[in-house]
Amino acid sequence: MRYIHCAYGAWSFLVEVETGFVREVRYGGERLAVAIYSAVRAPDWGTYPVALSDLRWGKTWCSWWSQAEGAPFGWKTEVKVGGDGFRMSIDGAPSETFQTCRTGLCLLHPLSVCGTEVMVRHVDGSEERSAFPTLVAPHQPFMEMAGLRYTAPSGVTVDIALEGEVFETEDQRNWSDASFKTYCHRLGDGKPYTLEAGQRVRQEVRVVCRGEPRVSLLSGEAEATLPALSVWLDTPTVDALLALREAGVSRVATDAPDVLSLAAEAGVAVDLRLPLDTLARLKPLAAPAGGSTLWLVSDRWGAEAQEAVRRLRQEWQPLGWELGYGSSANFAELNRSRPPRGMFHWLATAANPQVHTFDAWSILQNAESFADIGATMRSFAGEAGLCLGPLRFESIFTGDDPRADSPLAAAYLLLAVASIARGGFQRVIAGTASQLLNEASPVGAVVRDWLRASPQTVRYAVRGELRTLQFMGAQETRAYVVNLSPQEVEGIPPFTFREEA
Prior knowledge:
By secondary structure, the chain is α+β, with helices and mostly antiparallel strands. It folds into two domains: about 5-215, Beta-galactosidase, Chain A, domain 5 (Distorted Sandwich), CATH 2.70.98.10; about 225-455, TIM Barrel. It is about 20% helix and about 40% strand. The chain is built from ten helices and 31 strands. The chain has a 16-stranded antiparallel sheet that branches. Helix 4 (about 305-315) links the parallel strand 23 and strand 24. The radius of gyration is 24 Å and the shape is globular. The relative contact order is 0.10.
């Protein structure tokens, strides 16, 4: 990726040349926005890629033309900083009528504002006192927005004005993103909606700051217990299970019921994840090993799920199974449809870092979300254990990703492990059997180090844009440094990691 750096006084920002994302909007060094960007979302919520042209810039400003690829919408973007603060605007119109779930501006607030009191300005001119949530909010914390004002952690007063649409804010930690997103167009107004040919879309976001920031280099340390690891196995065979056991794996996860007749011979515990309809057809069988968990995978708690639990308790639990309940794709489904306490031994949420954005910078930043997801799950889980998984790298929209077994994916897993541990999760479903058994796999190397250390601790330290992690086992310690910066730092290339001696 290439970036254009613009600055004026205490203000600075970066423009990502390939995507048009405006990143790292800062005042006095404090990050006020992770990113501000314009998106064209398809009727199925997919995001159209964009092609940029006519890119122009100076020391304090940048402008360009964007054309959505696959949708008849193009727009001009202008962004600048000056004595009156930060300003970004878009102006465009469809060349023909089309349907969209969202077309326009989005602003990503950093998680540093969690718990911060905020004054929300509504479109009717009224104001409402609120706060950025600390635990993950199931639904939008702010609605009918025309702006908001708050005091940032540095002590600076931040005033954000939004024009051209009605805006709302959602908690993106529901989709394992490390941000709050203020977006255009009310979800309650219908989705998808129609933009007519020639219909003007003009929107603007302005940010003004008052006061002198008190900002120091981001730093800090934390230590937490490493969660137990369950490795994903797509196609169970006795040979595969024995190979995994030989590699140090004590439990596997799968959605293939065939594992029930094989795992006992291999002597490994199983996380068997099945949807309601499959569970209803499956004949109860004994758990293959102690600690095996039968997972009911559902995105909506209701009468059908409750009836399934009754059957599981009567027919499966006496055969040695622990019972779990988990979402199929994201935390949003579990957070919005929570089962009653005391019904399950375990609760789980699936996750991937590419629900909304797909670039390396965003992927690594998003790993920070799991600590808050774990705290939120603990608030409604009762005595149930917490499991994160399956944790996949690939987007649910794009499927296969050539980066899924790359240094980037390994760096993401390292950061995710530290965040998951800080969130209090006791179990994680991550990595695949093929990665673990492949000596050349970057992800497999991380998984093998995890297995060597478990059930010991992970130590996590922040040094500016670097993150240092140590897997501290009983016999050895493995150390890594991850670079979250788009520039090389201490000899580490952007968005990758180095194993320390």
